[in-house]
Specification:
With about 575 residues, the protein is α+β, with helices and mostly antiparallel strands. It is built from 20 helices and 14 strands. The protein folds into 2 domains: about 290 residues, no CATH class; about 230 residues, Phosphohistidine domain (Glucose Oxidase, domain 1).
Length: about 575
């Protein structure tokens, strides 16, 4: 057995050897804590993924390692990866899909992706027959209805809110583990929605390309409606309009985000009171979100309201003309025109035309359901976070831990002994805290095959070894939200710090997740280093009506802060002006 970089690292799969940070970097953007991964990785996320693949019929349980051992996902060097080889086999077993199409949907144009290496076990006629049934079901079912129905069942697990303060420390740990089954169920639905949207989007892209209309593919999945992460953005936009219309609230923001809510509570005018009431409603609905939110030590809007308040501070400076409603309406019209245009080009092939129209009709439902099920997972994890926070805070008060999050530095196997005698783990906690801080300063390789890369292969985050692109350079990626926009680049590495984004600037980031949505409203366009047509940045940018290009390699290093850039979401290019 190899030496592990991090205590909760997994062994790679020999059968399925290619792993990638693609997509998973949206929810695990930082190094993962030992308790988060060891308690939920093999016992919840891995099993939920297997459940989904077996329900789709493309795999059987016997094709994977024994339960309790990660294979479809894994932690390597402290960072979470998903198995790309398994997804390639899935593509081979689904009629009409190709390895190239599935690679494009997850890798985009990322360089140095390992080539597919055929294995005689990959092709399976029986699995293909089952996959064909699942594929057919995509055109006859509503993913949002299925997601909401399953969520109703899951809600019972998080609806009961015991008095955490009255619980013993061993019961708090037991309550934390209790949510694994609910998260497994929620994640299974998320995988089903993701692959449903992935297959349909790939189908649309393939057909559009064959019809000579590649530039129209992104428009087919724009302004689909009912995207939860876009609803979050709309709500914060409406709050920003209230701030602009309330002099005392506006003035309180002028003094800075620190202490803002306390200042408003001390005000006596009705507009401040109204804002606070609506802010409380916003937190009640969206307080579970935050950067890196599937990691249990992640701050959330509820525990760190300054994260959302900083985005509101950016939004309040945007003019009313920047309302997302106008852009969405335009994109909706362009979407219908693009569908009609592509369908017209397919007039000579009735079968392909029918397949395209069916995919265009159903894809939006799956993309919206993907965002919804992703938030359902975050809600379950927030419920699991609560007992750990209570446990950690008790240990902080007793002087055992410096911060509550340090309770996450033990593994699930160590947790019971730690709770029984936490003081005996002092040296181990200190050692792992330093190790986690070091790992969090690293940039893991985006993809690897076979043996996981050693720590020496990790770059230093934000070091900037890559040279800036010169004026006139054209950076290429994947256009995922149509439109063309010219503005100043604003490099944003994390929501945990003030972005200083000015209205109309272009967000340039490594990756984004649901918590970033409101910040998109203040931006003129978005450029992301990773991602694909079904990633969060793509879905939300299309819904809000701003151009976006993803899979732009090393964008945060090649584009200088403050430089003028032109983002073309149709062609997938970023011109450094």
């Amino acid at each position: 057995m190899r030496d592990k970089v991090w205590v909760c690292d997994d062994e790679p799969s020999e059968r399925f050897p290619v792993y990638t940070r693609g997509n998973v970097g949206e929810v695990f953007s930082d190094a993962v804590s030992p308790l988060t991964w060891s308690a939920y990785g093999p016992q919840s996320w891995e099993l939920g993924w297997r459940d989904a693949f077996c329900e789709m019929g493309v795999f059987t349980p016997q094709e994977f390692k024994p339960e309790g051992v990660c294979e479809l996902i894994g932690c390597f060097g402290g960072y979470v990866y998903i198995n790309m080889s398994v997804t390639r086999v899935l593509a081979l077993r689904i009629p009409g899909l190709t390895v190239e199409a599935i690679d494009k949907s997850l890798f985009g144009d990322y360089p140095d992706v390992p080539a597919y290496r055929p294995d005689p076990r990959d092709q399976n006629a029986e699995r293909t027959r089952h996959a064909a049934v699942w594929l057919s079901s995509l055109f006859s079912s509503d993913a949002k209805v299925a997601t909401d129905k399953e969520w109703t069942c899951i809600q019972s697990a998080i609806a009961t809110r015991p008095d955490l303060i009255a619980m013993s420390e061993s019961d708090l740990l037991k309550h934390f583990r209790y949510f694994r089954a609910a998260n497994r169920q929620a994640f299974k639905r998320h995988v089903l929605n993701t692959y449903g949207g992935n297959v349909l989007a790939s189908m649309i892209t393939q057909i559009a390309q064959a019809a000579g209309a590649s530039d129209l593919a992104a428009k087919v999945t724009a302004a689909i409606g009912d995207v939860d992460s876009a609803k979050l953005s709309y709500e914060l936009w409406e709050l920003s309009r209230q701030v602009r219309g309330a002099p005392k609230v506006h003035g309180a923001f002028d003094e800075g985000v620190d202490g803002l809510l306390d200042r408003l509570r001390g005000a006596s005018d009705p507009l401040s009171t109204r804002f606070l009431a609506q802010w409380s409603e916003f937190i009640a609905r969206w307080g579970f979100l935050g950067p890196n939110v599937w990691e249990l030590r992640s701050p959330t809007y509820r525990t760190h309201p300054e994260i959302a308040l900083r985005m509101l501070e950016r939004l309040r400076q945007a003019p009313n003309a920047s309302s997302p409603h106008a852009g969405t309406a335009t994109l909706a019209a362009e979407r219908e025109a693009a569908i009609a245009d592509i369908a017209q080009r397919l007039t000579g092939s009735a079968d392909v035309q029918g397949q395209f129209l069916a995919a265009a009709r159903c894809c939006g439902s799956y993309l919206a359901a993907r965002e919804r099920s992703k938030q359902h997972c975050a809600l379950v994890l927030d419920a699991a976070r609560a007992p750990l926070r209570e446990l950690g805070q008790r240990l902080v008060r007793r002087g055992v831990l410096a911060r509550w999050e340090q309770v996450l530095l033990v593994t699930d196997e160590e947790a019971d002994a730690f709770v029984a005698n936490p003081a005996s783990y002092g040296a181990l906690i200190a050692e792992r805290a330093a190790r986690l801080e070091m790992l969090s300063s690293k940039e893991p390789p985006f993809v690897f095959e076979g043996e996981p890369p050693p720590l020496s292969a990790f770059g230093d985050r934000g070091r900037g070894d890559t040279e800036s692109a010169p004026a006139g350079a054209e950076l290429r990626g994947i256009g995922v939200s149509p439109g063309r926009y010219k503005g100043r680049a604003r490099i944003i590495t994390s929501l945990a710090t003030d972005s200083e984004l000015e209205p109309g600037e272009v967000i340039v980031a490594v990756t984004t997740d649901a918590a970033w949505g409101p910040l998109f409203l203040a931006a003129g366009a978005v450029v992301v280093e990773t991602g694909a047509p079904i990633s969060h940045a793509a879905i939300v940018a299309r819904e809000l009506g701003i151009p976006a290009v993803v899979s732009v390699t090393s964008a945060t290093q090649r584009i200088r802060e403050g430089s003028m850039i032109t983002v073309d979401g149709n062609s997938g290019t970023v011109l450094v002006d």
